[in-house]
């Protein structure tokens, strides 16, 4: 027995192949029908909807830190203390390392002393010039000697400037003994441990800081696509969005992480070896969900298609003549219709460019062996939405009337709901005056129909019934 059909019939209270049901009921009548339309096929369906959906282009990319800084020592000395935890977040200006300071403190003291000496000598030289200036006109001081005094002042001024610079350099080196964070971000591991001696000339990396928020998204597009991206970028006045998500397999949760970013930079050249153009977007990353150098999937949202027709992906079939769909008509028969499709959307729906109209119903599951003109039974996850074709319910009612079973109330319920009460099969099994074909049909349903449950004991979930059926 077809398990899919059996499962559906469990929902409505009668289990078994609906195709077999139609066939057996046809056999129970006076004249068996040969028309294939009488063999109703079970399908699921969906309604063609008009929705706003994105026109997009998918590519791959990677995350790049907005600022990535290698921390190195700019002076020689021993690392006396490390002030941060590996992998922690630091703010700009936070103290990271302390290098052994006494030699640099002494250099500052020495530079200060030399500067003070040169300042004092300069003051004496200036006083000497001022004292002798009035004596030059009186010929009491030779002009050559006075010029020597003035030159000495200039020389001492230069010495003061030199010693001032030396003091500033000594102070800078002393300041270098305390290494602080130049940017805010996440700091890496210790690459040189406390107690080791570092040398400025070695340019030895102590650790790194990666700025995590905001963050760059770098990706590429081929030259065949770039003009289209550039066109929509200009139309959006530079406000083009992209969606960034983990690659398949990196996020197994039901709600796959996807984040919006702003396209900020279009590349200025084509890579000669790959024929691609580099693009860059900027994305907020306050929760540190994305990390530098992480490969990611990128979807460029080029524009929004207004009121685009969409159907579930399963509704689109492919044949030698192209793509098509089975449209369910009002009499529950199907029509095969050629369609033109667009892009697959994130929610599993497919854009339909032509061939369908909003509000039409299309077959989603059960297309195998389905032919134009076939009668179908549309099932749903909600049992109350499942309905048997009128031709089938009419035959069921005919059998009940033939043996004077049921009531007008029951017949009306079957006609209005298109469903069979869950205890109908059980009561028909108890009936002893059935024909061979009817008995064989009931035998086929052995083990089903007890309070609307199948062999697994799952409730059929069918609608409430007045009294008992087929009593």
From TrEMBL:
Residues 68-210 form the Multidrug resistance protein MdtA-like barrel-sandwich hybrid domain. Belongs to the membrane fusion protein (MFP) (TC 8.A.1) family. GO terms for biological process: response to antibiotic. Residues 108-176 form the Multidrug resistance protein MdtA-like alpha-helical hairpin domain. The keyword Signal applies. NCBIfam families: RND_mfp. It comes from Ruficoccus amylovorans. Gene3D superfamilies: 2.40.30.170, 2.40.420.20, 2.40.50.100, Helix hairpin bin (1.10.287.470). This is Efflux RND transporter periplasmic adaptor subunit. Coiled coil: none annotated. GO terms for molecular function: transmembrane transporter activity. Its main location: other. It comes from the Bacteria. Residues 456-465 have a biased composition (Polar residues). Residues 1-26 form the signal peptide. Residues 444-471 are annotated as: Disordered.
């Amino acid at each position: 027995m077809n398990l899919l059909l059996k499962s559906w019939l469990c929902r409505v209270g009668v289990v078994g192949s609906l195709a077999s049901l139609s066939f057996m009921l046809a056999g129970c009548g006076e004249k068996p029908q040969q028309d294939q339309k009488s063999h109703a096929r079970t399908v699921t369906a969906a309604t063609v909807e008009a929705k706003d959906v994105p026109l997009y282009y998918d590519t791959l990319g990677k995350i790049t830190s907005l600022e990535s800084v290698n921390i190195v020592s700019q002076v020689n000395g021993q690392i006396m203390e490390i002030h941060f935890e590996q992998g922690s977040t630091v703010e700009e200006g936070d103290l990271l390392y302390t290098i052994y300071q006494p030699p640099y403190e002494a250099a500052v003291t020495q530079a200060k002393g030399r500067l003070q000496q040169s300042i004092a000598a300069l003051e004496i030289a200036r006083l000497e010039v001022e004292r002798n200036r009035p004596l030059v006109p009186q010929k009491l001081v030779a002009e050559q000697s006075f010029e020597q005094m003035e030159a000495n002042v200039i020389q001492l001024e230069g010495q003061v400037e030199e010693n001032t610079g030396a003091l500033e350099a000594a102070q800078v080196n002393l300041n270098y003994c305390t290494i602080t964070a130049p940017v805010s971000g996440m700091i890496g591991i210790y690459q040189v441990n406390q107690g080791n001696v570092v040398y400025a000339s070695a340019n030895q990396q102590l650790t790194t800081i990666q700025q995590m928020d905001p963050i760059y998204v770098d990706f590429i597009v081929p030259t065949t696509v770039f003009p289209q991206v550039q066109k929509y970028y200009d139309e959006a006045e530079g406000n083009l969005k992209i969606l960034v998500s983990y690659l398949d397999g990196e996020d197994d949760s039901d709600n796959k992480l996807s984040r919006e970013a702003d396209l900020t930079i279009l590349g200025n050249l084509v890579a000669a070896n790959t024929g691609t153009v580099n693009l860059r977007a900027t994305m907020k990353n306050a929760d540190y969900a994305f990390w530098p150098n992480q490969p990611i999937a990128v979807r460029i949202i080029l524009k929004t298609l207004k009121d685009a027709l969409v159907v579930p992906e399963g509704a689109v079939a492919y044949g030698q003549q192209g793509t098509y769909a089975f449209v369910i008509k009002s009499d529950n028969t199907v029509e095969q219709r050629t369609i033109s499709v667009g892009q697959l959307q994130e929610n599993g729906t497919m854009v339909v460019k032509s061939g369908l109209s909003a509000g039409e119903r299309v077959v989603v599951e059960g297309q195998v062996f389905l032919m134009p003109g076939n009668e179908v039974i549309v099932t749903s996850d909600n049992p109350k939405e499942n309905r048997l074709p009128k031709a089938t319910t009419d035959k069921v009612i005919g059998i009940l009337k033939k043996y004077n079973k049921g009531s007008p109330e029951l017949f009306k319920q079957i006609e209005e709901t298109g469903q069979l009460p869950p205890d109908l099969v059980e009561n028909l099994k108890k009936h002893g005056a059935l024909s061979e074909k009817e008995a064989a049909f009931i035998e086929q349903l052995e083990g089903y129909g007890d309070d609307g449950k199948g062999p697994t004991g799952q409730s059929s979930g069918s609608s409430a019934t007045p009294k008992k059926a087929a009593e």
